[in-house]
Amino acid sequence: MEIDLLCVAKKFRNKGLAPVMIKEVTRRTNLRGIFQAIYTAGMELPNKLTTVQYYHRLLNVKKMASVGFYSLPTNNLSIYEKLYKVPQPVKNNTCVIRAIETKDISSCVIKLNSYLSKFNLTHYFEEENFTHYFMPRPNVIYTYVIEKNNEVTDMISFFIIDNIVLNNDKYKEYKAGYLYYYFNESVKLEELINIALFYAKENKCDVFNILNMFNLETILQECKFIKGNGSLNYYLYNYFHQKYLDVCNH
Fold it and tell me: How far apart are CA 155 and CA 182, in angstroms?
């Protein structure tokens, strides 16, 4: 089960509503028999598990410079446009890059879970929730696979969030793509990330964001990501208390 984006209207902020909403979410989750959770926050809270850093890859250089997302010298934007030009995926006769299809779900679930099992803390997907989270929906989620000899060998996914731009006469919004989940068998990770960048650009994303987790540290320089000023903190809820109770019961 996943809960995302707790939002409070601006006029109701700083009135203690967020803790009330979190308590209600916890109550409803408990009714489903779920008593532990992993949650994230931008702020520093007690008992932090880890912190990951945001990195950004410019796709539309002029627009992102104009909206103030990243400071670039305006007289040399053409140089940066060449620098951040997204490479087109290499096409050959041995593999096909395409959007994921229903027929791919079973094998992708197995391969994704196998890849994620290498890490200490991660999701485990079943076919039902994999279908919900990864099957493409325009302007929401995009998933691409590499197929070789009628077998899916690699998968990459990203989701899109629209952002409002304030106080800019030229642009009122920009699209940000966020790397989601992936696994790779037949291509290097940087090649797989470049495939995501290409399709994010094709789907009108202006910037592409990742977190430095799941081995992504290795591709930051190669794929021309820029370190951001934002980070995300991970926390565990009720894990240690539950573990203590389990020990006592035995």
Answer: 5
pLDDT per residue as tens digits for the range 17-43: 988 988 998 899 999 998 888 888 888
Separation CA 167–CA 103 (nearest Å) = 46
Mean pLDDT of 164-193: 95
Map residue 123 onto helix, strand or coil: coil
Q: For residue 46, what is the enclosing H or E element?
A: none
Paired tokens of 118: 């290498």
Residue 46 confidence (pLDDT): 83
What single letter denotes the amino acid at residue 34? I
Could you tell me which of 187, 183, 197, 192 has the C-alpha nearest to residue 225? Answer: 197
Task: Say what the pTM is.
Answer: 0.86
| Interior angle at CA 212, CA 70 and CA 194, nearest 5 | 70
What gap in Å lies between CA 179 and CA 203, rounded to an integer? Answer: 14
In SS3 terms, 91-153 reads as CCCCCEEEECCHHHHHHHHHHHHHHHCCCCCCCCCCHHHHHHHHCCECCCEEEEEEEECCEEE
CB-based contact 179:158 (threshold 8 Å): yes
- Cα–Cα distance for residue pair 112/39, rounded to 1 Å: 22
3-state secondary structure of 175: strand
| Residue 12 CA from chain centroid, whole number | 29
